[in-house]
Amino acid sequence: MTPGVPLDQIGQTLASFYDDLITEGVPPHLAALVRRVKQSQPAVAEESRETVRTAGESKPVHLAIVVEDEPEIRQLAETLLEETELEVVGCPSAEEALAVLRQRGGEVALVFADVRLAGEMDGLQLARAVSTLWPRARLVITSGHGIRRPDLPTDAVFIAKPWRPMDVLVEAERAAREQAPPVV
Protein backbone atom coordinates (compact mmCIF):
# COMPACT_ATOMS: atom_id res chain seq x y z
CA MET A 1 0.00 0.00 0.00
CA THR A 2 1.13 3.51 -0.69
CA PRO A 3 1.98 5.42 2.50
CA GLY A 4 -0.12 8.53 2.99
CA VAL A 5 -3.11 7.43 0.87
CA PRO A 6 -6.14 7.06 3.14
CA LEU A 7 -8.06 3.78 2.92
CA ASP A 8 -11.34 5.58 2.21
CA GLN A 9 -9.81 7.21 -0.87
CA ILE A 10 -8.67 3.79 -2.08
CA GLY A 11 -12.17 2.43 -1.43
CA GLN A 12 -13.81 5.24 -3.37
CA THR A 13 -11.46 4.63 -6.29
CA LEU A 14 -12.17 0.91 -6.20
CA ALA A 15 -15.92 1.55 -6.12
CA SER A 16 -15.65 3.83 -9.15
CA PHE A 17 -14.02 0.97 -11.09
CA TYR A 18 -16.34 -1.69 -9.73
CA ASP A 19 -18.48 -2.08 -12.87
CA ASP A 20 -15.38 -3.19 -14.79
CA LEU A 21 -14.21 -5.45 -11.95
CA ILE A 22 -17.51 -7.30 -11.60
CA THR A 23 -17.46 -8.42 -15.23
CA GLU A 24 -13.96 -9.87 -14.78
CA GLY A 25 -14.54 -11.25 -11.28
CA VAL A 26 -13.12 -9.83 -8.09
CA PRO A 27 -9.92 -11.52 -6.90
CA PRO A 28 -10.01 -12.62 -3.25
CA HIS A 29 -7.19 -10.26 -2.21
CA LEU A 30 -9.10 -7.29 -3.68
CA ALA A 31 -12.30 -8.32 -1.93
CA ALA A 32 -10.38 -8.49 1.38
CA LEU A 33 -8.95 -5.00 0.80
CA VAL A 34 -12.38 -3.58 0.00
CA ARG A 35 -13.79 -5.15 3.17
CA ARG A 36 -11.03 -3.49 5.22
CA VAL A 37 -11.86 -0.15 3.60
CA LYS A 38 -15.55 -0.57 4.27
CA GLN A 39 -14.84 -1.59 7.87
CA SER A 40 -13.03 1.70 8.47
CA GLN A 41 -15.84 3.79 6.94
CA PRO A 42 -18.73 2.85 9.28
CA ALA A 43 -16.76 4.14 12.28
CA VAL A 44 -16.61 7.59 10.70
CA ALA A 45 -20.25 7.41 9.64
CA GLU A 46 -21.29 6.32 13.14
CA GLU A 47 -19.43 9.26 14.70
CA SER A 48 -21.25 11.71 12.42
CA ARG A 49 -24.60 10.01 13.20
CA GLU A 50 -23.86 10.26 16.91
CA THR A 51 -23.23 14.00 16.50
CA VAL A 52 -26.54 14.44 14.67
CA ARG A 53 -28.35 12.35 17.27
CA THR A 54 -27.08 14.41 20.20
CA ALA A 55 -27.65 17.72 18.42
CA GLY A 56 -31.16 17.00 17.12
CA GLU A 57 -31.98 13.69 18.85
CA SER A 58 -32.95 12.21 15.50
CA LYS A 59 -32.56 8.53 14.62
CA PRO A 60 -29.84 7.39 12.23
CA VAL A 61 -30.99 6.83 8.66
CA HIS A 62 -31.46 3.23 7.56
CA LEU A 63 -32.04 2.89 3.86
CA ALA A 64 -33.78 0.16 1.84
CA ILE A 65 -33.09 -0.07 -1.88
CA VAL A 66 -35.74 -1.80 -4.00
CA VAL A 67 -34.30 -2.94 -7.34
CA GLU A 68 -37.03 -4.09 -9.73
CA ASP A 69 -37.52 -3.30 -13.42
CA GLU A 70 -41.31 -3.76 -13.38
CA PRO A 71 -42.69 -0.41 -12.13
CA GLU A 72 -45.84 -1.87 -10.54
CA ILE A 73 -43.95 -4.48 -8.53
CA ARG A 74 -41.28 -1.93 -7.55
CA GLN A 75 -43.99 0.49 -6.36
CA LEU A 76 -45.69 -2.28 -4.38
CA ALA A 77 -42.43 -3.21 -2.63
CA GLU A 78 -41.61 0.46 -1.99
CA THR A 79 -45.05 1.10 -0.49
CA LEU A 80 -44.74 -1.98 1.69
CA LEU A 81 -41.27 -1.02 2.95
CA GLU A 82 -42.37 2.56 3.63
CA GLU A 83 -44.47 1.08 6.45
CA THR A 84 -41.21 0.18 8.23
CA GLU A 85 -38.70 2.52 9.79
CA LEU A 86 -36.53 2.31 6.68
CA GLU A 87 -36.19 5.13 4.17
CA VAL A 88 -36.93 3.63 0.73
CA VAL A 89 -35.34 4.27 -2.66
CA GLY A 90 -36.54 2.47 -5.79
CA CYS A 91 -34.28 1.65 -8.74
CA PRO A 92 -35.15 -0.05 -12.05
CA SER A 93 -31.60 -1.34 -12.61
CA ALA A 94 -28.57 -2.63 -10.76
CA GLU A 95 -26.54 0.25 -12.17
CA GLU A 96 -28.87 2.79 -10.54
CA ALA A 97 -28.76 0.84 -7.28
CA LEU A 98 -24.94 0.90 -7.36
CA ALA A 99 -25.04 4.68 -7.84
CA VAL A 100 -27.18 4.97 -4.67
CA LEU A 101 -24.84 2.61 -2.82
CA ARG A 102 -21.81 4.66 -3.84
CA GLN A 103 -23.42 7.78 -2.38
CA ARG A 104 -25.13 6.32 0.68
CA GLY A 105 -23.63 2.86 1.19
CA GLY A 106 -23.05 3.38 4.91
CA GLU A 107 -26.79 3.98 5.42
CA VAL A 108 -28.04 0.98 3.45
CA ALA A 109 -29.62 -1.66 5.69
CA LEU A 110 -31.49 -3.63 3.01
CA VAL A 111 -31.17 -4.34 -0.70
CA PHE A 112 -34.30 -6.05 -2.08
CA ALA A 113 -33.65 -7.02 -5.71
CA ASP A 114 -35.15 -9.10 -8.50
CA VAL A 115 -32.87 -11.46 -10.43
CA ARG A 116 -33.90 -10.12 -13.84
CA LEU A 117 -33.36 -6.38 -14.17
CA ALA A 118 -33.14 -3.67 -16.80
CA GLY A 119 -29.58 -2.79 -17.72
CA GLU A 120 -26.44 -4.84 -18.18
CA MET A 121 -26.21 -6.28 -14.66
CA ASP A 122 -28.69 -8.71 -13.19
CA GLY A 123 -29.71 -9.13 -9.56
CA LEU A 124 -27.19 -11.93 -8.97
CA GLN A 125 -24.30 -9.73 -10.06
CA LEU A 126 -25.69 -6.94 -7.89
CA ALA A 127 -25.89 -9.32 -4.93
CA ARG A 128 -22.22 -10.28 -5.35
CA ALA A 129 -21.26 -6.59 -5.60
CA VAL A 130 -23.19 -5.66 -2.46
CA SER A 131 -21.82 -8.65 -0.57
CA THR A 132 -18.26 -7.66 -1.48
CA LEU A 133 -18.38 -3.87 -1.21
CA TRP A 134 -21.19 -3.28 1.32
CA PRO A 135 -21.21 -6.46 3.43
CA ARG A 136 -23.24 -4.85 6.21
CA ALA A 137 -26.34 -4.50 4.00
CA ARG A 138 -28.91 -7.29 4.25
CA LEU A 139 -29.52 -8.88 0.83
CA VAL A 140 -32.92 -10.20 -0.24
CA ILE A 141 -33.12 -11.54 -3.78
CA THR A 142 -36.38 -12.51 -5.49
CA SER A 143 -37.44 -14.13 -8.75
CA GLY A 144 -40.57 -15.50 -10.35
CA HIS A 145 -38.82 -17.48 -13.07
CA GLY A 146 -38.77 -20.93 -11.52
CA ILE A 147 -35.44 -20.42 -9.76
CA ARG A 148 -35.46 -22.30 -6.45
CA ARG A 149 -32.31 -20.87 -4.90
CA PRO A 150 -29.93 -19.16 -7.29
CA ASP A 151 -26.18 -19.02 -6.70
CA LEU A 152 -26.14 -16.23 -4.11
CA PRO A 153 -23.66 -15.01 -1.53
CA THR A 154 -24.01 -17.07 1.66
CA ASP A 155 -25.49 -14.16 3.63
CA ALA A 156 -28.26 -13.45 1.08
CA VAL A 157 -31.90 -14.49 1.49
CA PHE A 158 -33.97 -15.75 -1.44
CA ILE A 159 -37.75 -15.21 -1.61
CA ALA A 160 -39.58 -16.66 -4.64
CA LYS A 161 -42.23 -14.59 -6.41
CA PRO A 162 -44.99 -14.02 -5.77
CA TRP A 163 -43.58 -13.01 -2.41
CA ARG A 164 -45.76 -12.56 0.60
CA PRO A 165 -45.70 -9.07 2.13
CA MET A 166 -45.09 -10.52 5.58
CA ASP A 167 -41.89 -12.25 4.37
CA VAL A 168 -40.58 -8.95 3.02
CA LEU A 169 -41.53 -7.10 6.21
CA VAL A 170 -39.74 -9.69 8.35
CA GLU A 171 -36.53 -9.20 6.35
CA ALA A 172 -36.92 -5.40 6.56
CA GLU A 173 -37.36 -5.65 10.33
CA ARG A 174 -34.21 -7.78 10.58
CA ALA A 175 -32.30 -5.28 8.47
CA ALA A 176 -33.45 -2.34 10.61
CA ARG A 177 -33.04 -4.00 14.02
CA GLU A 178 -30.28 -6.60 13.87
CA GLN A 179 -26.71 -5.58 14.26
CA ALA A 180 -24.85 -5.68 10.98
CA PRO A 181 -22.65 -8.74 10.48
CA PRO A 182 -18.98 -8.22 11.26
CA VAL A 183 -16.65 -7.42 8.39
CA VAL A 184 -13.92 -10.06 8.17
UniProtKB/TrEMBL annotation:
Residues bearing 4-aspartylphosphate?
A: 114
List the InterPro entries hit by this protein, alphabetically: Bact_response_regulator, CheY-like_superfamily, Sig_transdc_resp-reg_receiver
Listed A to Z, the keywords are: Phosphoprotein
Q: Does the keyword Phosphoprotein apply?
A: yes
Q: A Pfam family matched by this chain, by name?
A: Response_reg
Where's the Response regulatory domain?
63-184
Name of this protein:
Response regulator
Q: Which organism is it from?
A: Methylobacterium komagatae
